[in-house]
Amino acid sequence: MKKISSNNKDIAFFDFDGTITIKDSFIDFLKYSKGNIDFFKGIIILSPLIIAFYLKKISSQKLKEAFINYYFNNWEIDQFINIANDYSKKRIIKIINPKALRKIKWHQNKGDEVIVVTASLEYWIENWCNEMNLKLIGTKIEVKNNRLTGKIQGKNCSGIEKVKRIKTLYDLMNYNIIYAYGNGSGDIEMLKISDKKFYRQF
Questions:
Q1: Which of 34, 100, 148, 179 meets the CB 3.0–4.6 Å disulfide criterion with 20?
Q2: How far is residue 76's CA from residue 109's CA, in Å, rounded to a whole number?
Q3: How far apart, in whole angstroms, are the C-alpha atoms of residue 144 and residue 157?
C-alpha cells in the first residue's frame, strides 16, 4: 500500500470514542441497533467475558468479537451497513464533544491533514468522517459470503496497532508537526509518536 506524504504540512490524529465523542460509540451503536432490552440481555449473557476482560484474562479483541458475534453474527452485510449508516447520520452528531469539533476545525482551517484513528468499527463512523472531510482508520469486520462472521478482520485498531496502521499509510517524516489526541490506554502508543500530545484535553 502506497504511503501518503505531504511536504510543509502538519498532521493530526484523533481517537474517536471518548475523545471526539462524549461516550463510547460501540456501546451506543449496540443500543441503537438492537434496542435497550436486547442490549442489556446481551450484557448479562456476556458478563463473564466482560469480567474476564477487566481481570486481564482476555484481550479487548476477544471481548469485542464476543459482542459482535452475539449481536450481529450471520447478519447480511447490507443489513449491517444500512443500520450503521442510519446511526452515523442520525446519532453521532448527538454524542460529539463540541471542544473536539472546534479543534478538528482549527486543524482543518490551517490546512492540516486530520485523521480519525479508532478501535470502533469503521462502518458506523465512515459517513460522519466523509461529511467532515476526515480520513478514517478503524477496526474492520470480517465478512464471508456477504454475511458477518462475528469476527474482526485482522487486529483491533487499538494500542500499538494504531501506530502500525498509521505508519503503513503515512510517511510521518514528511510532516512538520505531528499532533495526537486521545483519552485512554489504547491511545498511549499513538500519543508517543506525536510531537504535540493531548491526553483528555484540547
A1: 100
A2: 40
A3: 21
Q: How many domains does the chain have?
A: 1
Residues of the domain holding 81: 9-199
Sequence-ordered list of residues with C-beta below 8 angstroms from that of 191, at least 6 positions apart, any chain? 180, 182, 197, 199
Centroid of chain to Cα 86? 17
Q: Residue 110 burial by CB count (10 A; 0-12/13-18/19+): exposed, middle or buried?
A: exposed
User: What is the C-alpha to C-alpha distance for residues 185 and 115, in angstroms, rounded to an integer?
Assistant: 19
The domain spanning residue 169 has which CATH number?
3.40.50.1000
pLDDT in tens, 20-35: 999 999 999 999 999 9
What's the number of CA atoms in the CB half-sphere (13 Å) around residue 198? 17
